[in-house]
Amino acid sequence: MLQRLTIKNYAIIEHLDVDFSGNLNVITGETGAGKSILLGALSLILGERADPGVLFDKTGKCIIEGLFKVKKSQVAAFFQEHELDLEDQLIIRREISAAGKSRAFVNDTPVNISQLSELSTYLVDLHQQFDTLDLGNSDFQREVIDALVNKPAALQQYQGVYQQYVQVQKQYKQLSDSRDSANKELDYNRFLLDELSEAGFAPHEVEDLDNELQLLSHAEEIKNSLNRAYFQLKEDEQPILQQLKQLQSSLQGLSSFHKDMPGVAARLLSAYVELQDIAEEIENINDQVQYDAQRIELVNERLTLGYRLFKKHGVQQTDELLQIKDALTVKVESVLNLDEQLATLEKEQAQLQEGLLQMAAVLTAARQAEATPFEKKVNTLLAQVGMPNARLRADIIPGELNPFGQDTIEFLFDANKSNQFAPVGKVASGGELSRLMLCIKSLVAQSVALPTLIFDEIDTGISGEAARQVGVILKDLAKAHQIICITHQPQIAGKADAHYFVYKDAKADKVTTSVRLLSQEERVNKIAQMLSGEKPTAAALENAREMLAVGI
């Protein structure tokens, strides 16, 4: 509930404090006096965009502050989500500097405009003249029916599953596109992979083959050198090993004549043993080296294949070629696995869709069950506000799954019992739309925990008994909600619990807007003026008193 609205330096308001009652508050005044300016200022603390051009004094800043009394349970989730301090009284402040900078605060904690807009949805429903256009909007029509059905848990459960469904659809589309794109390269990648697999190179094979070819190509030269070395070491007329052995024995015999002789002899013995091992190794190598023309041909073929693949793939080593093979294997297998993944996603999508259809059917049934009572209640209220021949029909048309079920809801209107129903936004006049919106909101307000409802000239296009009945509806709404209503109708003003008068005041060559709460006698006079003009007649004054007496 809005308890107080403070406005400083806004439009033609210099400074204004308005304390509202918790029931039906009516605001009246001459056209252009500034009634809608109050709502413009209020809209700023509800998250509307700020315009620095609205400053009354361009050298100061504009401050709009609203004091709300709230039930903590209504806004607890919002305050917890945004880490704000929650108290019994809620102060929302909006500041606009001359430079155009805007700041917003909730209980003196800075918040952004999107947060302010979100918070306002828990506090105030602001109905303005142009809002009647919402009646032709399918989303608004669905929201009305869903508010009356009043099963938010079922809708939230559906929407949770629907989000999963949309996500799976998105994944399926992306994967399907990836598969289509990958399939274009699959044949080529598979050809490259088959070529590398058929080549069957082992790690370092090309490099090893190159070394082997060098050996095979020089086999005769190598064997000649090995044979010569082996012959000189062991088989010559005076083999090196034999001469070394003799030298070692001769020096060993001199060991007793010089202290260094045993060491020299031992070193010669070690050299003899080493050269003997070398001779045997040379013999082994010589046995292994064989000229093999067939093997040379085979190695050349493998090397030719290897170097061709090196050039084709832009690499220089066998291991790099094998890495390319592994990468191609992954690509080919991933494409082949896409079909399996798509099949899994398709199955999951079908399961989610089946669940959604079941939940959507529950929502549809609830909406259909509410549609007829809703039509009857609205049509009864339409007769009450001076439209006895008007009829509203709520058509619920099943369709494709969407974020709110599978229904398209359309309000159809017949103003003259002609049974020629047409979309309400196309056939209802401005006055009819205003009264229809009031009837609908009065029903919705019973299901929605919204403490404050604000109506800006909801009485457009009506007068007399119809206006009185609008006042009756507003008065009834005010039993459970705070109502703030700007009106030109005395029949509505007479129903108010608090009547505020907006007027212009000229001070020091400045025109400002002021508001005052009218006393009982002042109300009589203002309502009489609304009935008969600036100088009310005695009959008008008496009529005004009767209106106030009935209103109370």
TrEMBL record:
<keyword id="KW-0067">ATP-binding</keyword>
<dbReference type="InterPro" id="IPR027417">
    <property type="entry name" value="P-loop_NTPase"/>
</dbReference>
<comment type="similarity">
    <text>Belongs to the RecN family.</text>
</comment>
<comment type="function">
    <text>May be involved in recombinational repair of damaged DNA.</text>
</comment>
<protein>
    <recommendedName>
        <fullName>DNA repair protein RecN</fullName>
    </recommendedName>
</protein>
<dbReference type="Pfam" id="PF02463">
    <property type="entry name" value="SMC_N"/>
</dbReference>
<dbReference type="InterPro" id="IPR004604">
    <property type="entry name" value="DNA_recomb/repair_RecN"/>
</dbReference>
<keyword id="KW-0234">DNA repair</keyword>
<keyword id="KW-0547">Nucleotide-binding</keyword>
<dbReference type="InterPro" id="IPR003395">
    <property type="entry name" value="RecF/RecN/SMC_N"/>
</dbReference>
<feature type="domain" description="RecF/RecN/SMC N-terminal">
    <location>
        <begin position="1"/>
        <end position="506"/>
    </location>
</feature>
<keyword id="KW-0227">DNA damage</keyword>
